[in-house]
Amino acid sequence: MTVSWYLSDIGRAQGLQDLFKRQSPQRLKVLREHAIAQSVVSSNRIEGVEIDQARIGTVVFGHPALKDRDEEEVAGYRDALNLIHERGATLPVSEETILNLHKLCRRQIWDAGQYKDKPVDIIERLSNGDQRIRFRSVSPDETPVFTRKLVDLWSDLVRERTVSPLILLAAFNLDFLCIHPFRDGNGRASRLLLLQTCYLAGIDVGRYVSLERLIEDNKERYYETLEQSSKGWHDGKHDPWPYIGYLLYIIKKAYDEFEERAGEIAAPRGEKTELVELALQALKGEFSVTDIERLCPNVSRDMIRHLLRNLKEQGLVTCVGRGPGAKWRKEGNTR
C-alpha cells in the first residue's frame, strides 16, 4: 500500500518536473550546482570520507591540486556525477558502465574499476565495540557472473515492461548491494547507479536535489531496510519491499523539495502564464481549476481563473457546469 502511494505521488510530481524544465534553464542553474556539491559531499561522508568545508567549492567546481586521498575521492565522485548528468538516459546500464563509475569515484586506488578478489562481508560495528557479520556477499569467483546476470535481468524487464520502472530500479539497487562486487566503494557506486537508473526511468529530479544527501539524512532507515530486505537473498527468499519503499520515499522527498525550492526562485514576468498554458497541454479530457493548481502550485487560484476566462473569450476553452468545482474542456491549442 505504501509503495502504491509513493508511485502515485511520484507520477504526479513528474508532471511538475516537466513543467519546470520548460522554464528558463538559468532559473534552475543554482539548484543544479547546489545538488552536485551536496551529492559529492554526502555520498562520501556516508562512507567516512570528508574534506575541509572551506575546500568543497574548490574541489567540486574547480581543478585544484588535490591535497589528500579524501579530496581525490570527492573529485572522483564529482567526475562520475558529471558523466551521468551529461549522458542522462543515453548512458546504458551495462557491466562496462558499472565498472567505469566505480573507477571514476575511486580514482587512483589500485583496484578502481575491478571486481573484488577476496570475500567481502558486510560488518556491523555494535555500540559495545563488538562486530557482527550482517550479510555475506557473493563470492569473488561468482561476482562477474552475478553482475552480468543483474544487467541482463534489467535489460529484459525494461524491454518487457512488466514491472514499474521505479520498482525495477529500486530492486536493481538492492541486488547490486547484495552482490557487493567491489572491495570498497560499493555504497557510492550504488548511489551513482540509483541516479543513472532514475534518468532511464524518466526521473531526473536528482539533477536538482541531491538524492545522496536525502539518503544521508535518513541513513538509519537506509541500513535498517537494507538489512531487512537482504535476509534470505542468497536463497531467493528475501523481502525486497522494505528497501524498495525506502528508495521510493527518497525520490518522493526529492520531488517535494524540488517543488518547494523551485517555487522560491522568482519567476520572470509572464512565466506563470506559461506554466498554466503548459499544464493545460498536459491535461487530458475535462479538468478543474484544482487540477491546474496541482500542476502549478506557485500560481494563485485567482490568476488561474483569470487566465481561463481569457482563454474562454478566445474560444480555446469551455466551462462545463457551474460553481467552484465546475469542469473545463479544451477546444483548441492553448499556446
Could you give a quick summary of the protein structure above?
The protein is mainly alpha-helical and 335 residues long.
Report the C-alpha radius of gyration, rounded.
23 Å
- CATH C-level class of the largest domain: Mainly Alpha
Overall body shape: globular
CATH-defined superfamily of the largest domain: Fido-like domain
Mean residue pLDDT: 88
Question: Which range best describes the helical content: under 10%, 10-25%, 25-40%, 40-55%, 55-70% or over 70%?
Answer: 55-70%
Please give the largest β-sheet: 2 strands, antiparallel
Structure annotation, total helices: 14
Do you know the CATH architecture of the largest domain? Answer: Orthogonal Bundle
Cα separation of the termini: 39 Å
| CATH topology (fold) name of the largest domain | Fic-like fold
Query: Order of SSEs, N→C?
Result: HHHHHEEHHHHHHHHHEE
- What structural class should be given to the helix and strand makeup? mainly alpha
Strand content: 5-15%
Low-confidence stretches: none
Number of strands: 4
Biggest sheet, strands in spatial order? 1-2
Number of domains: 2
3D architecture notes:
The two termini are 39 Å apart. The protein has helices spanning 2-21, 25-46, 56-61, 69-87, 95-106, 143-160, 165-179, 186-200, 211-217, 219-230, 241-264, 271-282, 289-295, 301-313; strands spanning 121-125, 131-136, 317-320, 327-330. The strands form 2 sheets. The protein has a two-stranded antiparallel sheet with strand order 1-2. A two-stranded antiparallel sheet has the order 3-4. It folds into 2 domains: 2-264, Fic-like fold (Orthogonal Bundle); 271-330, Arc Repressor Mutant, subunit A (Orthogonal Bundle), CATH 1.10.10.10. With 335 residues, it is mainly alpha-helical. The protein contains 14 helices and 4 strands.
